[in-house]
Design brief:
Blueprint lengths: L23 H4 L5 E2 L105 H4 L53 E5 L5 E5 L3 H7 L95 H12 L3 E3 L14 E3 L9 E3 L3 E3 L2 H7 L4 E4 L13 E4 L20 E3 L4 E3 L6 E3 L27 E5 L14 E7 L2 H5 L2 H14 L13 E7 L3 E5 L8 E5 L21 H14 L11 H11 L4 E7 L33 H12 L2 E7 L7 H4 L1 H6 L3 E3 L8 H13 L2 E11 L3 E7 L3 E2 L4 E8 L4 E7 L9 E10 L5 E13 L2 H6 L3 H16 L4 H23 L9 E2 L6 H9 L13 H11 L4 H8 L2 E4 L34 E5 L3 E6 L5 H8 L20 H15 L6 E6 L6 H5 L13 H18 L5
Parallel strand pairs: 4-5, 7-27, 9-13, 14-15, 14-18, 18-19, 19-20, 31-32
Antiparallel strand pairs: 1-28, 2-3, 6-8, 8-25, 10-11, 11-12, 13-27, 15-16, 16-17, 21-24, 21-26, 22-25, 23-24, 26-27, 29-30, 30-31
Family: Belongs to the SEC23/SEC24 family. SEC24 subfamily.
Protein name: Sec23/Sec24 trunk domain-domain-containing protein
InterPro entries: ADF-H/Gelsolin-like_dom_sf, Beta-sandwich_Sec23_24, Gelsolin-like_dom, Gelsolin-like_dom_sf, Sec23/24_helical_dom, Sec23/24_helical_dom_sf, Sec23/24_trunk_dom, SEC23_SEC24_subfamily
Amino acid sequence: MNNEHGQSVPSSGPFRPPNQALPQQQQQHLPQQSIRPVNPTSTPPPGPRPPAQAGVPGRPPFPAAHAPPTAQGMPMRPAARPMMPPVRPKTPPQQHQQQQHSQPQTNPAMRPMRPVGPIPSSPQRPIAQPHAPVDQQLSPAFNAMHLQQQPRSMPQQQPPQPHPMQQRPQPPQQSPAQQPMQPVQPMQPAASQSMQQVPQVRASGRSKRVYAVNPEVAAASTGPGGMATASPPWPHGLPQQQQPQQQPQQQPQQQPHPAAPGMSPSAQPVRPASHSASAGVGYHNGPYAHTGQQLPPELRPPQQPRPRIDPDQMPAPVQVREQDQALFGDKFFGTIERDRVPLATTTYIGLDQGNCNPRYMRATVDKIPHSKDLADTSKLPLGLVIQPLAKQRPDEVPLQVVNHGEEGPVRCTRCRAYISPWCTFVSGGSRFICSICSHSNEVPSWYFANVDMSGRRVDIEQRPELRYGSVEFEVPKDYFSSRQPAPLSTVFAIDVSAQSVRNGTLEATCKALLHTLFGPNEVDSRLPEGNRIGIITYDRAVHFYNLAPALTQAQMLVVPDIGDMFLPLQDGFLADPKESSHVIIALLKNLPNLYKDTTHVEAVYTSAVLGGMMALQNTGGRLYIFQSCLPNYGPDLLRARDDKALYNTDKEKQLTNPASEAYKDLAKKCVENAVCVHAYLTAPQYTDVATLGTIPGLTGGDIRYYPEFTLRESERLLHQLDHDVHRETGYDGVMRIRCSDGLQVIDHYGNCNMSTYTDMELSGIDQDKAIAAVLKHDSKLDVNRGASFQCALLYTTQTGQRRVRVHNLNLNVTNQIAEVFRAGDEDTALSILFRQAIFDMHHKKRRDIHDHLTQICVQVLTAYRTNCAASTSAGQLILPEAFKLLPIYIHCILRSHALRGVGVDINADMRSAALHLYNSLGVAELVTTVYPRLYALHKMSEEAGIPNGRGEVKLPSMMRVSYERLEASGAYLLDNGSDMYLWLGSRISSELLELLLGVSRLDQVDASMVKLPVLDNPLSTRVNHIAQQLQSDRSRALQLRIVRQEMDPIEFAFSTWMAEDRNAEVQTYVDYMCVLHRKIQDEMKKSNNYY
């Protein structure tokens, strides 16, 4: 059947075993993402090109409503997207199919849905209108790609066939000068770390250079005897060719690149005619590529092989995020209408209709497999990522607070789930059916209300818990812990050793505390009413300060016996910053002068933590500790164990595990006393983050790791501390996730302590923290009933109120594997896979984890290929629409600080800090960290950088993250979540430099600046607005890093964030896709599905 767009709609069919192919007529309707080849040697003939138009060069204009999606470098014809028949969204029983809000809603049948047709160029989510292909007016370069065109006479009602990557037929005999690019040679043995250049001689007598690549990639493209084959894994099926004779002493010849669609030749990236060896072979625009200056060998960027396939044909997050933002950005999203859920990176407006906002809870698939067999067949991870205190948009409805008095919230007597919109009232309203366990419960007399003919309570308008998916319940004393709820108390412990004074940690911390507590004017307290603070300093002893408001200045009490810690005063240590502001301000201003001449080089750590815990044990709270050196004094001192001989070996996991069990025991004591510890580590040398981070990891805190900290980064510390103290925070919490009968939670991942198999103890929880839960079937689910999930967080607010925050989610259940793939969420799946890999880093070999992640990706794509696209040719690489970014995301986390090999730019401390960070990030911030955001400042649209009426700034169009796409005449801004790099090309114009930085030459730029200058011109104002918007999207302070091409050594660190390029361990994204293709075909051979 066809939908309202004239596109084919798949019909549901029975579930089939994994090795049983679907009929061909059904497979044509399944969501597919195909990749087409590009001839790397295809060049347009001499002569004028046809007039270019944005999107497709050489084609006549299309109507605006039917403009086909295109990708830079290769225009592709979209295929019509198969869609499921419109299904009326499920409504909670108490809603009675009635809208509770006046906001305009979209008819589900008319909602644009996620595309599932083959869109090999720019991966897009919104549907594209079909159009008749134009075969007559293609440019020569386009015709040279041998792309298959649909016949014009194809009936409109016939669904278009997918266009996956097919083997290219053998070309006609060509002259030697016209021979296409030869396949690459296999990589040299692993014993040699440097890549070898092997010159080759063309038949024309001119040489070209062959670039060594990963052995898996090279082996995949060559057959016995070094002959290139037209068989997998190369998806484009290169024809068999003779290997040319090797001839040294020849120079490489640069292959011309066709102009990108919609871009003039002058706007194309500048390709140098020659490349310096310091930049790596094939690393066209890499650091130090165009100068005779040589980088040290350890700082040379990884060599980039010449791509065999046009990278523009590979799916990338850039287009997917922008298309989703265009579809959902600043628009209402009703949480019941889950035919398609906005991406986590999209700024939609959530409208709670009975399911919680996706910001709070996301599932890896929005249609749950009805059985374990179906889930195992799909190979997809099944789980949830929950961010219970996630920050809402200002224009969203705040969470409703419900108070049921001394009786407390209404709950199921069997599973103890809370009342929700998905509970059903029966027997005239005297009983309700639990949405989790289906148990019939008696309604308390004080909660009884009559129901109408449809079972809807007559008082539903006065019951937020029956209307909204997320609510908060005020709870009675039965829900209190061993401590009485009280406003939040905070202790700051500051290292005052000689190292802290030398590198500026003490001075920067005191300035940051003054700003955080009292603002820039140092007048009124910025903390909520009733909050109290305490201050500790420490070196080889621990110093407590009396901050009583009756004092004129603070009194210091010293505890020298750190082996037997005690709290020297009971009253006065914790003080109200509003009442004792004069004492606190004077103390923070005097501390740098008080210790400026200190000679104590020793500093404790656990003793300071223990002292802060003792001060907070009666009320609970949070402790911020600022450490500037390795703890080298006291009973729990640490020794430097950063043995570089263990790097990249099987014993490397020892460096990511704590060195002493004493730190884990202290962490458990902090959990018992509801004390959340946040560690700021500023040591210039090895600090043993793996051990010091044990306490924040179990108590729900953060590790802020600033290696080689100086006063130049004091603004960064100030911004970070201000954010951490004032964000929405709870403490003394316990969280449990409940799910429908037939499912169970088997694993939890996050910064928490598992007190029991089901309960997570959270000494502290804030708006930036997320918890992942992995699910498993224990019986079959009812397809007609759906699956319900409920997350309940019992915690104390900053103002001292004891509450339960409840998030509810009800998802459809399916017995069709195609629907499981179609309703997937690759961002959430990545978060769960990454957390599982982080957990394995403490127990398994890193290489094995790499292989395991790649194998998971292969298994998912193979399952889709086998069960949803079995009739396609073996030479095709088919990607499911909802998981087409899974390969690039897996490629990104393999090269992240958490999982990549330790080298000159990353050490054991950086890896441990990254492991802790990625284990707690929410979905949105995780995916924008592993695949950073890159913007071209010299080619922004006119509306980019201009604030709207709400103060939100429109960001420029994102770029794919690769050095190949950087122009030497441009300026680029890269946001990776912790740093903001401003990359300036070596041939940047003086006019652009004047507008951005106020200088006329590149050598006049201050590479040590930490803030962009605010100049009196529109471009400077817009760039500053963009930088502020990027910072507001992040939970971590972004440190500005100036990178001048071929001038600053930091350019190497910048190059490591080029997610689509290769590094010392991981091949390029293109090559990684080829390896995946070969492995998929191997898996298909094993299951007898290879044809």
